[in-house]
Amino acid sequence: MRQAGCGGDAKRTRQRCKLRAALFLMCAGVGALGLAGCASKVIEPAAGLPPRYPDFLYPAVPDGTGSADAVALLERGWRFLQAGDLQSAERAFSLALKSSPSFYPAETGLGYVRLTNRAYDAALGAFDAVLKRSDAYVPALVGRGDALLGASRPREAIGSFERALVRDPSLGEVRRRVEVVRLRLLQDALGGARRAADAGDYGAARRAYQEAIDASPDSAFLYRDLAGVDRLAGDINAALEHLKKAADLDPSDTGTWIQMGDLLESRQDFEAAVAAYARAEQLEPGGAATERLGKLKRRAALTNLPVELQRVPELGQATRGDLAALLGTRLARLIEQAPQREAVVITDIGGHWAAAWIHEVTRAGLMDVYSNHEFQPAVPLRRADLAAVASRVLQVIGRAEPRRFQEWQRGRPAIADVDPGNLNYAAAALVVTAGVMPLLDGGAFLPARPASGAEALDVLGRLEVLSR
Fold it and tell me: For the whole model, what pTM was predicted?
């Protein structure tokens, strides 16, 4: 028995019959879809309601894709999805696919339905099936990224989102999602890296920092922190490479340059270390780099000087020759400013390691040659000798600052073992008042006490500060 309205054998008639049969079944099982012939059973979503899932990307229909009926079902299904009627949405998308099996926008819609049900694996299956047909279909790429996030696969999610952004850079919400995911990955990796470093597991800490860098490759501080772990692990070369990368990304970070200078200094690459500290000082004048730079310059200078001078700080008693060499290296600029005497013949310094500096300081009047034309560089240095030389340096400084020098001269400190009538009093009073040499226990100066190399260096350091 033929169904009413479906008589005849023509091909067109048979097609009409099939369509009416499909519509009849749809009306019976999906009355809310409201196609022609089913108007009495339509339950449309209420108009004007805000979308339930505003972050979902509508599966736009590419030109030439799907039949008119399939497109209508896709639109109907999307309205049901955004109204929260997931069952009706799924049926509409399924019918669209049944009418046009290659209509991948409808399959994308099904993926979003699975996503709302937190069926992340099923959603991934739907989106992946779509991308096999069209690997650059943006709604499926975005949906796939959301499904991967739900499945706790954030790095893969970032990859899917970024593929979508390549195709459509205007997707600001998707870009924001990528930033949020990267931040979470960064925070997790940083926490793990710091815990591992605190526990002494430097291998795990380095791996965790690398994960953080993968999540945020343009963050200079990550490379700087990784360099710190490299150094703890004893890998200085890797630490320097990571610091250079940090400096490339953020040349204005003072901490990076200081850390680089410290590493280079530890390798005794003083020239490069000075350059790094100097860059930090340019960025932050008067900061930590300034002090490090001054110390390093002095150390670098000493490193290139005779070994005898390098050993002066360790001497329990310095000599006149040691003091002349220290003056020539530490106060070279001041020596140039001092009034120059006529050169005199010095008979006992031929071949002495400090001969050049002895000539300089005697011509500048900071130290004297004895009447027999000897300098006697090996004579032990006493505190009285050191005070006499320091007082002459103060006089040179006073030429540029006369009022300051007059204040030093007016000082009359009480010195327990050197009274004002003593020949050593004027020099001792001057250096004590200027803060260059301190009084010792009981307010004594102890002029005859041997002056150590460290004490001589300390006095010259104070003079150097006053001369600036």
Answer: 0.46
